[in-house]
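hi support,

uploading two proteins for the ticket. first:
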Amino acid sequence: MLTNTAIGASALAYDLTLLLVSITWSKGFERGLMKDRAHDDAIGELFREDPDFATRYLNEILEEGDQADLLIALRQMAKAFGGVTTIAEKAHLNATQLYRTLSPDGNPELCSLIAVLKAMGMRLAVQPLHHT
């Protein structure tokens, strides 16, 4: 049985896929060729063009609680918002340590997560669970 979270995450993933296909198609069409684009590049462009989408995307991942997905999303977002080095500077963090923190084996501390999100113009928030 699917939960509301699973349904919401699935719907968001489906919307993201459709949007990426649309962006990839339109950019390739505009250039007169249908060249494949790197997934992270397409996601990064989407995050830059629609920061509200980036926020919703992160919230869905946080709701699911999958740390690996969170680290992937944060790496993609860091790239989209100027790169890990730029985000590290804005967050007053060591760039090498931030690369390690956002790696697949990373385990970000709360203070680092808060600083990275702030450097990307976002913040971590707590909300009550909605029981129905």
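and the second one:
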Amino acid sequence: MARIAVIASLAFAASIAFAGSKPTPASAAPRPLTLPISLVDVMRASIEIPADGLWAAAGADKLSEEDWQLADQDAVNLIAATTLIASAGTGKTDRKWVANADWQSWVREMEKTALAIHAAVKSQDQKKLAAAADHLQQTCESCHTKYRPQTASDGVSRYPFYPKRELAK
């Protein structure tokens, strides 16, 4: 339940990105998505939190049913976020980053790995989850070595895990 905020933020970001867009004829090329926030902000809110949750799940001795549900939600959030980071946002280097073939290659690799994580979670296979989570770590580190070698968050503290909340009835 704690990660509902992440799903809501992804849906909100996507709705803002597409707000005001008019349907185009089938023959017209789709307009590229431009995020109304920076890629660093997307990374902090929509990749760091689910990735941290997945790495924690992969390292656990045994997962409860709730843990598997949270891992499923984290995998879905990560899959969705890969679509967002394939396009530029408002950050000063975003357009340059997404124009690079290696950036796009790492985005595709992250998506492929997130799909493998999702499949492992759906089958509740912790060994496959651990292997895919390790590969995700390698993919993230490779990309960050080139694009974020100094301060990964530009000096801004990362978002904390959201506290568990009970909704009013």
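thanks. also noticed: Residues 63 and 80 are 24 Å apart (CA to CA).
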